[in-house]
Amino acid sequence: MTLSKDIDRKQDRATSRGRATARGLALGALALLTLAGCDALRRNNGAPEFDGAYFRAKLTPSEVDRSAFSVWVLNPEKTLAGAREAGRYEAVKYCIQTFGSSEITWVQSPDVPLDQLSYDDSGRLVISGACNGW
Fold first, then answer.
1. How far apart are CA 126 and CA 112, in angstroms?
2. Looking at beta carbons, which pairs linking 53-59 to residues 24 or more positions away fall under 8 Å?
3. What's the mean per-residue pLDDT of the chain?
4. Which of 56, 82, 101, 120 could form a disulfide with 133 if both were Cys (CB 3.0 to 4.6 A apart)?
5. Mean pLDDT of 90-106
6. Partners of 104 in the beta sheet?
7. Which class for 88: exposed (0-12), middle (13-18), buried (19 or more C-beta within 10 A)?
8. Burial zone of 130 (CB within 10 Å; 0-12 exposed, 13-18 middle, 19+ buried)
9. Radius of gyration (Cα) for the chain, nearest Å?
10. Residue 82 and residue 53: Cα distance in Å, rounded?
């Protein structure tokens, strides 16, 4: 009887170790997947994708009237449709955060025909407008 109990205890310990190892492997795999997702966000600074590409865009509000702004989108040659949407995204985000509304009166609209789009001397796409809010 004692030998039987001793064998049962050893089997229980082995089973426990096996479960702990499996649990550890599962948690390790989960951690790796989580870190891989974080790396993708860091690589693009959490920026959304537009038409399959990532764009750097900079919005500058007017010093005279905070509702007026200009947006510059770098490397619009990646995909012009994506660059237009990246500029619009920055404008809408600014207007919502600052004035509580996504309504914009465009001066240089991202929706104009291709030959009417504006670019600066560095080749950046430029759009501008004013937020309609409050």
1. 12
2. 53/78, 53/79, 53/82, 55/82, 55/83, 55/86, 57/86, 57/87, 57/89, 57/90, 58/90, 59/90, 59/91, 59/94
3. 82
4. 101
5. 96
6. 131
7. buried
8. buried
9. 28
10. 7
Q: Which helix (H) or strand (E) holds 27?
A: helix 2-43
Longest dimension (CA), the chain: 93
Q: Using CA atoms, how far apart are residues 126 and 134, in angstroms rounded to an integer?
A: 26
State how far the Cα of 78 lies from the Cα of 102, in Å rounded to an integer: 26
CA proximity to 69, closest of 133, 123, 121, 115: 133
Question: Is pLDDT above 90 for 17?
Answer: no
Phi-psi region of 45 (alpha: psi -120 to 50; beta: other; left: phi over 0): left
Tell me if 70 sits within 8 A of 60, measured CB to CB: yes
Query: Does residue 49 surpass a pLDDT of 60?
Result: yes
Element (H, E) at 116: none
Reduce the secondary structure of 38-100 to three states and give it as a string.
HHHHHHCCCCCCECCECCCEEEEECCCCCCEEEEEECCHHHCHHHHHHHHHHHHHHHHHHHHC
Residue with tokens 């693009």: 44
